[in-house]
């Protein structure tokens, strides 16, 4: 397989770049930095994702507190992603054991949406 590694990339629309898959055969290396500074970040850390070459910022995630399972808001906002954030990309939720994860975009609430089986 022939791989193209993206080192210096110009991103015009960050939201579109992060929500659409890369072309087949393209490799993009990223680095995740955990931020545990401050009082709330000690219990619920923030994670920042950036390009490995020079750490160009891409997105952040913040663990949502007081849940039985892990829930993270993913946003273009570096400070404090919330569910009402205009820069929200979506959220990730795990099961109780932390072995399965579901990703949701900022669209319709899955509990209110028709299931895939009922559409068929």
Walkthrough of the structure:
The protein is mostly beta strands. It has one domain (14-20, 28-110): Tubby Protein, Chain A (Alpha-Beta Barrel), CATH 3.20.90. The chain is built from three helices and eight strands; from the N terminus they run βαββαβββββα. The strands form two sheets. The chain has a six-stranded antiparallel sheet. Strands 1-2 form a two-stranded parallel ribbon. Helix 1 (14-19) links the parallel strand 1 and strand 2. It is globular, with a radius of gyration of 16 Å. Mean pLDDT is 80; it is low at 116-120.
Query: How is the biggest beta sheet arranged?
Result: 6 strands, antiparallel
Helix-strand pattern:
EHEEHEEEEEH
What radius of gyration results from the CA coordinates?
A: 16 Å
CATH homologous superfamily annotation: Tubby Protein, Chain A
Strand residues, percent: 25-35%
Strand order of the largest sheet: 3-4-5-6-7-8
| End-to-end Cα distance | 37 Å
Secondary structural class = mainly beta
SSE topology sketch:
Layout: E1 4-5, H1 14-19, E2 26-27, E3 30-35, H2 39-43, E4 46-51, E5 57-63, E6 71-75, E7 88-94, E8 101-105, H3 116-119
Parallel strand pairs: 1-2
Antiparallel strand pairs: 3-4, 4-5, 5-6, 6-7, 7-8
In short:
This protein has three helices and eight strands; from the N terminus they run E-H-E-E-H-E-E-E-E-E-H.
């Amino acid at each position: 397989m022939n791989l193209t590694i993206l080192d210096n990339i110009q991103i015009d629309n960050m939201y579109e770049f992060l929500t659409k898959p890369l072309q087949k055969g393209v490799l993009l290396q990223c680095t995740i930095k955990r931020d545990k500074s401050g009082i709330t970040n000690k219990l619920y850390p923030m994670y920042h994702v950036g390009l490995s070459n020079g750490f160009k910022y891409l997105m952040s995630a913040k663990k949502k507190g007081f849940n039985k399972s892990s829930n993270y808001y993913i946003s273009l906002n570096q400070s404090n992603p919330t569910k009402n954030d205009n820069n929200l990309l979506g959220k990730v939720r795990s099961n109780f054991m932390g072995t399965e994860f579901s990703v949701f975009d900022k669209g319709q609430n899955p509990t209110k949406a028709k299931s895939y089986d009922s559409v068929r």
